[in-house]
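Key result, reporting period 2: structure in, sequence out.
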């Protein structure tokens, strides 16, 4: 089995260096070009299936890969594949978080697994840490 991992293309929040997390921010023009370039590069690869989160930036990136693929793999989106939920930090820049939540930010930087972000909880949704959906895909 060969596993390819790819990140979605750029969004306006990425460009502005804002924490994104579970906020459903679409690709911007640069991100669409990045996704198209990735899809073009991967078009010669054979895929049985393409998995992505249920956020529109991930789905749009994945759809471009599927569209250019000769083998037309199935596309499955799953909310369990979302990136880390940043709660009240979402939409804020690092500097804004540092100003508004200095103690929590410092604690989080020292231990991202045990420190809760405001309105988000602890970092228990890292896929390599405890996300059970990865096991579903690996054993499929």
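The corresponding designed sequence is given below.
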């Amino acid at each position: 089995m060969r596993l390819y991992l790819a990140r979605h293309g750029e969004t306006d929040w990425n460009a502005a260096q804002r924490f994104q997390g579970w906020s459903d921010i679409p690709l911007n023009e640069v991100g669409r070009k990045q996704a198209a370039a990735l899809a073009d590069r991967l078009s010669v690869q054979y895929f049985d299936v393409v998995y992505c989160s249920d956020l529109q930036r991930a789905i749009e990136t994945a759809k471009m890969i599927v569209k250019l693929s000769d083998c037309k793999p199935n596309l499955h989106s799953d909310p369990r594949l979302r990136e880390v939920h940043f709660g009240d930090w979402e939409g804020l820049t690092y500097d804004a978080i540092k100003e508004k939540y200095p103690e929590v930010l410092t604690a989080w930087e020292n231990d991202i697994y045990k420190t809760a972000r405001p309105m988000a909880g602890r970092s228990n949704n890292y896929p390599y840490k405890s996300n059970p959906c990865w096991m579903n895909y690996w054993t499929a």
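The beta strands are 49-52, 74-77. Confidence is low (pLDDT under 50) at residues 124-130. This case is discussed further under Risks and Mitigation.
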